[in-house]
C-alpha cells in the first residue's frame, strides 16, 4: 500500500496545512461532498472512514473507502470542476478542511508537497486500472480480495482476542502500519461495510460476494458483519488478489 497523503508530507508542510485549515468533526451518514456540486473545499482526513460513491440510474457504485491521512477533493481543487462523486462519512470523522485556493497556495509554498498529491492521484489510477484489468477476463474473486486487503491495510487493527493465548505479539491492540502489509492473523477492520457495499465496490452483486466468502479459498479466512470484518488469514486474501 502507498503512504497516505499526510504521511508523505514534510513536517513543515503538515504544520502549514494545520495553520491554514480548520478542524471539523463529521457525524456518520453526513456528506463531506455531493456529486454534481461546485463546492470548493479540500479535506484531509485525520480519523474515521468515508466512502466515495456515485449514483447511476438508481444504482450505487462505490469508488473507494478512505481513512486517516487520505485526501478528499484533490481532483476538483486541481481543475476547478464539478464534484464527480459523493463522499459520505461511514463513521465519526475528524478532518482538516480548507478552501481549494488556500490548499493550492500552501502546496505552492512548500517544496515537494505537490508530489504528495501526485502520489495520491497515481495510486488511485493504479487501483482503478487494477480493477479494470480484473474485469477482463472477469475475475470477481480477485476484485473482492483486493478490496478486502485495501480495507485491512487502511483500517486494520490487530485483533488480539482472536490470537491463540501466548501467541507472539499478544498484548494491547495495535494498528497495522501502512506500507508494511497486513499481519498474517488476527486483524479487525472496525467500519460498517456490508456485503452489499463490498459488491458495489468490487463490481458484483451481494449474492456473488456471499458465494466467494463461503467458498474456498476464503471460507474460514475471514468473516464480514455489518459493523466489522475479521481477517483470520491475510495470506488467503493475498493469494486470491494475486499479490503472492
From TrEMBL:
Matches recorded under SUPFAM superfamilies: cAMP-binding domain-like
GO molecular function terms attached to this record: DNA binding; DNA-binding transcription factor activity; kinase activity
Signal peptide region: none
Key word Iron-sulfur present: no
Gene3D superfamilies tied to this protein: Jelly Rolls, Winged helix-like DNA-binding domain superfamily/Winged helix DNA-binding domain
GO cellular component term of the entry, any: cytosol
Coiled-coil regions listed: none
Pfam name, any one: cNMP_binding
Alphabetical list of InterPro entries matching this protein: cNMP-bd_dom, cNMP-bd_dom_sf, Env_Response_Regulators, HTH_CRP, RmlC-like_jellyroll, WH-like_DNA-bd_sf
Source organism superkingdom: Bacteria
Domain Cyclic nucleotide-binding: 5-107
UniProtKB keywords: DNA-binding, Kinase, Transcription, Transcription regulation, Transferase
Protein name according to UniProt: cAMP-binding domain of CRP or a regulatory subunit of cAMP-dependent protein kinases
Organism: Actinomadura meyerae
Lineage: Bacteria, Bacillati, Actinomycetota, Actinomycetes, Streptosporangiales
Amino acid at each position: 500500500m502507498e503512504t497516505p497523503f499526510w504521511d508523505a508530507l514534510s513536517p513543515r508542510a503538515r504544520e502549514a496545512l494545520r495553520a491554514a485549515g480548520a478542524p471539523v468533526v463529521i457525524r456518520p451518514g453526513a456528506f463531506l461532498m455531493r456529486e454534481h456540486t461546485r463546492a470548493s473545499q479540500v479535506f484531509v482526513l485525520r480519523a474515521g472512514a468515508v466512502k466515495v460513491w456515485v449514483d447511476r440510474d438508481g444504482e450505487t457504485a462505490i469508488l473507494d473507502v478512505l481513512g486517516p491521512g487520505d485526501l478528499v477533493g484533490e481532483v476538483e481543487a486541481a481543475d476547478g470542476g464539478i464534484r464527480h462523486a459523493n463522499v459520505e462519512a461511514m463513521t465519526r470523522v475528524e478532518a482538516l478542511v480548507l478552501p481549494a485556493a488556500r490548499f493550492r497556495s500552501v502546496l505552492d509554498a512548500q517544496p515537494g508537497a505537490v508530489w504528495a498529491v501526485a502520489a495520491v492521484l497515481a495510486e488511485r489510477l493504479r487501483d482503478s486500472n487494477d480493477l479494470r484489468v480484473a474485469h477482463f477476463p472477469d475475475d470477481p474473486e480477485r476484485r473482492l480480495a483486493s478490496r478486502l486487503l485495501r480495507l485491512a491495510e487502511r483500517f486494520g487493527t490487530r485483533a488480539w482476542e482472536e490470537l491463540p493465548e501466548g501467541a507472539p505479539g499478544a498484548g494491547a491492540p495495535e494498528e497495522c502500519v501502512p506500507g508494511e502489509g497486513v499481519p498474517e492473523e488476527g486483524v479487525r477492520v472496525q467500519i460498517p461495510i456490508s456485503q452489499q457495499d463490498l459488491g458495489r465496490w468490487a463490481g458484483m452483486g451481494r449474492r456473488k460476494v456471499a458465494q466467494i466468502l463461503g467458498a474456498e479459498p476464503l471460507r474460514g479466512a475471514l468473516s464480514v458483519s455489518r459493523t466489522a470484518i475479521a481477517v483470520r488469514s491475510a495470506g488467503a486474501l493475498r493469494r486470491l488478489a494475486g499479490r503472492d
